[in-house]
Amino acid sequence: MTLFDSSDLPPAPPDGASVRVRMTVAYHGKGFHGFAEQAGVRTVGGRLRQAVERVLGHGIELTCAGRTDTGVHARGQVVSFDADPGRIDTEALERSLNKVLAPAVAVRDVVVAPPEFDARRSAVARRYRYLVLNSPVPDPLLADRAWHVEQPLDLRALLLTCDPVIGEHDFASFCRQPPGEGSTARRVNDACWRREGDGLLCFEIEASAFCHQMVRSLVGTMVEMGRGKKRPGEMAAIIRARDRSAAGQPAPAHGLCLWEVLY
Description:
The chain is about 20% helix and about 30% strand. By secondary structure, it is an alpha+beta fold. α1 packs across α2. The mean pLDDT is about 95.
């Protein structure tokens, strides 16, 4: 379902007559077919674009920092677009968008950015968090935000899985093969597990960019090691294999959150 028909709206002003706008957006991924706009399905990007166009009264082209998959959440997604300077009031735009998009989507911040800013190309790193509820009893309040794993997980084993991931590697073992000759090499700046309390474990990872399903596949493999089904010492060999069948299945999407984009 669309918010309104935007097909007759005028386009954004041309370069030089527009201002670049940067927004930080949070959303609950349940009920959305990911961020990237797709015809005929409900996406975060589609809803957000329509809402911005409705408020500004002209068309926009929306760029995002990371195209999250179906069911994945975000706290710090960043988008950019060009707007008519005569129509842009950042505080009013934020208020209006939150009235239209709540409660599944929230605009946390709206600012006028330098003309060269691009939400995707200007980013130097993305940080994701993945929540695991490691408890024999499920928690209904976390059911749509954390992966419930009943079997006990060894936090020490989980910590040992992190060091081999840090650095520049080919992560083909943890990714869907990109179209054409796309590279699966990525640089991971940081990766760690920590206990959040009440059986909740958090995996946090920062990289310059991520392959499709890379974080979820890493978490799925690490959880197998935390359960003792694989040894943490196998992680380096799995990375070197560059073979998707060497790693575990991806963890469920609903535990993953795009936490922050760094510029």
